[in-house]
Amino acid sequence: MTTLQQLDGTYVIDPVHSQLGFVARHAMVTKVRGTFSEFEGTATTGPDLQGARIELTAQVASVDTRNADRDGHLKTGDFFEAEKFPTLTFRSTSVEAADADTLRVTGDLTIKDVTKPVTIDFEFNGVATDPYGNQRIGFEGSTTIVRSDFGISFNAALETGGVLVSDKIQLELEVSAIKQA
Fold first, then answer.
1. Which of 43, 102, 116, 176 is the most exposed place for a label (fewest CB within 10 A)?
2. Which pTM does this prediction carry?
């Protein structure tokens, strides 16, 4: 069985088999989920995670919440301001094994030209060789951010109290990455 410390090399995220998503509370009573359908990323590491670094870029205009009107609103200045800030990025500053099955990644998340540090614990799902001979690794992770920290503060008060959109947003990542030759 491959351990986190044995994952040396360069890996490219397979966007067809990965997901970069988010969850927000809507009207204080339900959750709305969304994804970015266009993204790319790489992870590079030496033995024992030496020199490990991870980079991810998502195209903001690819936001998809399964509702065209909401997606259009998310692209405006009320939220992501996609024309002015077309990408969101993550660049690791620290990668370490928290335990045998958990990769703790700390880095800089940039949304709307605002950069804040975040830490994401990724559960290591293992290594597999696909039918095409590619070595794949899998990870799942999540973290919570405060969207107003990134200049995304649009909201509307509800007559029953509370607000239309939660300030806390759950980021969810499911990653399948392919080792490069």
1. 116
2. 0.93
